[in-house]
Amino acid sequence: MRKYHVYGLGAALVDTEIEVSDQDLTMLGVDKGVMTLVDRERQETILNTLEGHLIHAKQASGGSAANSIIAASYFGAKTFYSCKVADDALGEFYMNDLRAAGVDANYSQKSVEGVTGTCLVMITPDAERSMNTYLGISETLSASELHHAALKDSEYLYMEGYLVTSPTGRAAAIEAREMAQANGVKTALSFSDPGMVEFFRDGLQEMLGGGVDMIFCNQDEALGWAQSSTLNDAVAALKKVARTFAITLGAKGALVFDGEQLIEIEPRAVSAVDTNGAGDMFAGAFLYGITNGLNFADAGRLASISAAEVVSNYGPRLPAAKHGELLATA
Fold first, then answer.
1. How many CB atoms lie within 10 A of CB 226?
2. Helix-helix angle 296-311:320-329, to 10 degrees
3. Structural contact between residues 231 and 217, judged by C-beta atoms closer than 8 angstroms
4. What is the CA radius of gyration of the chain?
5. Cα dist from 89 to 44, 289, 305, whole Å
6. CA distances (Å), origin 222, targets 214, 217, 232, 245, 316
7. How far is CA 63 from the centre of its chain?
8. What superfamily does domain 4-10+63-107+142-329 belong to in CATH?
9. pLDDT (tens digit, 9 = 90+) per residue, 29-60?
10. Cα 74 from chain centre
11. What pairs with residue 264 in β-bridges?
12. H or E, element range at 290
C-alpha cells in the first residue's frame, strides 16, 4: 500500500467567475471556449470593464490539476499536490484552502516574492467557459517544487497539460514522469485545453515521452491530437501514446479504454449552466475510482455523474458533502 492514491502537479490559480454575454466576449476580444494566457494588466482591464457583473463563484483555490486533486480528496482518496504560490495574501489563502480540502502539500516550503496566479473565468448563457489566465509565479513552477518522497509513495502521478506553456513547468512534468516510471508509479496526463494540443503539440509529446498509463481529454482535444475529424482516428492515435484513456463527450457521455476494450459511458441528462471544471471533476472522480477498487466502467460512471453535477452548478467544484452523495448513487 502506498501512502497516496494520487500525486498532482499543476498551477496554483485563484479563480474569479463572471457571467458574460457573447457580445461581451466579442467586445473584449476574448476567444470563446478556450484558455488564453494574459498578463496582469489585461486581466485587470477585463475586470474593470465587467465591473458590476454577477460573480457566482466564491474565491477558491483552482487550477485544472488542483480541481481534480481536491475532488479526489473529497471522494476519499489520499492526495498530494505540488504547485507554486507567492508570499502574498492569495498564496496564503490558496495553501489554506488546499489544507482544508484534505490535500497534503509541501506546506513547510518557503513562499517566494511575486504574485500568485489568477484565472478569470467568463461564463456565457450557453454554459461555455472562456478563461483568461495570469499565471503569475506559477509560470516559474519547476522541478524544485517536486516532493520526491511523496511522488515515489503514490499510486498515480497526475499532470495537467497546461504545464506545457512554461519551459520550467514542462521540465518539471518530464522529470516527474521519469521519476514516477522509475519507481513503479503510474502516470496520467490531461490535455487540459484544445489550445494546448493545437499550439504546444511538440511540448506535450515531450511530456508524454515514450507513453503514459492514462490520458484524459475531451472530444475536441482528442480530435486535435489525431489531427482528424473522426473519433475512430482519435482512439487509434491515443492508443499510441497511452495504455488507457478517457475521452469526455459532453452531453453524449464518455468513452474509456481500459487497455483491452472501449467502454461507452452513458451521460446523465442535466441542465448545464457552467461547464467550467467538468473535465477536472471527471478526472478526479475517475482517479479516485480506479485507485479505490472500481473498474474502468464503474469509475467512468462515477466520473460522468460527477461531471454532470458540476455543470449544473456554478463554479468548478462541489461542496465536500456532495461527493459522498454521488458515491452513494453511482
1. 19
2. 130
3. no
4. 18
5. 18, 35, 35
6. 13, 6, 10, 10, 22
7. 6
8. Ribokinase (3.40.1190.20)
9. 999 999 999 999 999 999 889 887 766 656 77
10. 15
11. 255
12. helix 278-290
